[in-house]
Amino acid sequence: MSLTSINLKKFTAFKEIDVELSPGINVFIGENGTGKTHLLKVAYCACDITKDGRHFAQKLIATFLPDERRLGRLVHRTRRSSTCTIEVHRESKKIALSFTNHAKDPEDAQISGLGEWVAQKVKSAYIPAKEMLAHAPGFVSLYTARELHFEEVYHDIIITAFTPILKGPYDERRKKLLSILQKAIQGKVQTEGETFFLKDRQGKLEFTLLAEGIRKLALLWLLIQNGTLLEGSVLFWDEPETNLNPKLIRTVIEVLLELQRMGVQILLATHSYVVLKELDLQSKKGDKVLYHSLYRDKDGSIAHRATDEFLSLHPNAIRDTFLDLYDRDVDRELESGGSGDVAR
């Protein structure tokens, strides 16, 4: 059962926004400060609390880390008292939360729909822009015992990566995806205690000795291998292109599209033209890919448009910047009278 919409009023950067979601891949683009990561985090918090029935507001505080962990600091800033409302929909189910800018603790918030919402658990994983598995040794125990100023998504992804594999054989689709990723990372992932290793024909390398881009692909391999990403689960990925060679983005998109065909819902935020274009080129008939553009309207409020056609995506700051680079390159060649090839 996939997420169907996110509705926010006076939450962080948003005055008001309603986002309808695809059950397949949802791609969020926009300039810095338009709230892409915040949307992903709100939806992830709603999914994650189904694991243990934790208070929605408590999860938001641990994920967003407002100053002094005061819930009210997540309310959109105004000079007056203000009330924020959050709604996340999962088909017929809805969880709703409201609180004022004076709220301090989770108990100061009003929540509805929690019992029905958590009655059906949702497997989910949030991959942050910063890779964390290389820092796993000792981190979880330290995070549990001490007040660390780390967003909880970093703790969560390590715990999820440590999840033991499911019993029984892999189905053919999972085998295919694992094979694709093993070829890209040139090995398989193993754990010893709290340390992750990449094992290949020459032996094993601890994650601290691997390129960060390879670690990201290795994490994706783990999430597929241990059964986190199966039909009905939700993957959140913030800037998958970070520290990843553009050549490997083709592999990432191939895997994500196949996960979508297996029934995994995906929400990702990106600044990469290569990510967008690979999705456009690799998508097949029947694939569910929805492009979301976040932008500021004339009064400075964040607005939203969505389309399932890449060429119809507007505004598209990523494509506009790419085309501007190309135009400037052409202009330079024309001005210099050079005979060199323009970068394509």
Brief description of this entry?
With 344 residues, this protein is of the alpha/beta class.
Q: Which radius of gyration do the C-alpha atoms yield?
A: 21 Å
Q: Categorize the overall geometry.
A: globular
Which consecutive residue ranges, at least 5 long each, have pLDDT under 50? none
Please identify, by name, the CATH architecture of the largest domain: 3-Layer(aba) Sandwich
Quaternary structure type: single chain
Helix fraction bin: 25-40%
What profile does the largest beta sheet have?
Answer: 6 strands, mixed
Q: What does this entry look like structurally?
A:
- With 344 residues, the chain is an alpha/beta fold.
- It folds into 2 domains: 1-123 and 230-339, Rossmann fold; 132-228, no CATH class.
- The protein contains 10 helices and 14 strands.
- A 6-stranded mixed beta sheet has the order 7-11-12-3-13-14.
- A hairpin with a 5-residue loop joins strand 13 (289-296) and strand 14 (302-307).
- The radius of gyration is 21 Å and the shape is globular.
- 38% of the residues are buried.
